[in-house]
Description:
With 182 residues, the protein is an alpha+beta fold. It has helices at residues 2-8, 92-97, 153-167, 174-181; strands at residues 24-32, 47-50, 56-61, 67-70, 76-78, 87-90, 107-109, 118-126, 132-133, 151-152. The chain is globular.
Amino acid sequence: MVRVLALSLDLPEDYFDAMYHYMGGTLMFNYYPPSGTVPMKDTQWNFSPHTDYGVLTLLLQDDLGGLEARNANGDWIPVPPIPGAFVVNIGDTLQMWTNDLYVSTLHRVTNVHPGKARLSQALFTYPHGQTMIECLPTCHSESNPPKYAPILCEDYNRSLVEQSARTGRPGLSKNTAARFKA
Length: 182
């Protein structure tokens, strides 16, 4: 998939190969317990709004639904499950690499089915931890300078994981947090 991304960014097809020779990844199995008899409020979720840290996330949902993504107009829209299909989310690392050409997917999850547990599997992918995340050469110009300071992939991920451990909520970058105010 990163080879397709490279071509979409006018880069050589193998541009990301060295960064992915020892690819990072985390496979997560998500369990959302059955919802209670009292409906959840609009400000309650099983997994609060967040973006993923890496480059791409491959998500396999069960057939219950409940995943929503925020579109460019700021509206929350359902991401209905399609049997045998994966949802592909863009993560923060790809957003930083592309200088906001590709924007990380702001999403949330609510299990709205009383008596049924919701299950999903997510594979979070990112380049080798020692990869410097900085604006790609085809994603900036004199009129569009880089928006993000360079950072090592492992440092970026670690800062958000530590934030999550401290707060008990998904770690959010400053950029993602600002999107809630918009």
